[in-house]
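Weekly structure sync, notes
Attendees: PL (lead), two postdocs, one rotation student
Agenda item 3: pending single-chain targets
PL asked that the sequence for the first pending target be pasted directly into the notes so everyone works from the same version. It is reproduced below exactly as submitted, 210 residues in total.
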Amino acid sequence: MVLDNDPIYCAEQINIPENLGEILKAYAKEVIRSNPSNIYEFSAKYFAQLDQNAEEEEIMGEEVSKDAIYRLVLACKDDGSPEEERDINALIEMAEQSDIPRAAISQALDLVSQEGSNRVSWKHLVVTLCSQVGGVEDVTQFVGLLMDPGMFGDDDGKIQISEFITLFDWWSTIDESISAELKSALFAALDNGEPTMDFAKFKDAYKSIQ
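Predicted structure, written out during the meeting:
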């Protein structure tokens, strides 16, 4: 950025940005509190951090809703393609039409997409977006959302155990809080010969390995 040091000659040239006073007041307080030896270096770091915080707040403010993901799942199931992997651009368009914020889509695709490939699993995208839904704060709430009839559960809220294991096993490569030991114990607890499970069964199995 080139600084303009030319004088201001008339009132028409004065355009004071909104919140300038609050920004300068907070900045002055921080300068006085820190008493930096190099005010230029301090100022550069201060405003860079302020800008980063504003960007993070903007992303966090674009919360993903369950209803939006429901619409994406329905669109993926009803588009006539039997393939799980879809063209990334087509999937982005479907997600945007489902009212999923672009920032959330980009964040999810950063985790899901493979370098050099223009295709991605729509199920992996949905799983990743589920982790961004407000109120989903632990494994139990996360799995409960995955088993919702609007996601991967059937009308009775049950999911094929084989599909759950496939999805959860993949998600464990993204979520570092899911250890290999926890995953192995959970899968063993779910292996009772039945093809499906409901949320109550998952909670019982998860509780048994804690």
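Discussion points:
- The radius of gyration is 24 Å.
- The first strand starts at residue 85 and ends at 87.
Action: rotation student to compare against the earlier draft before next sync.
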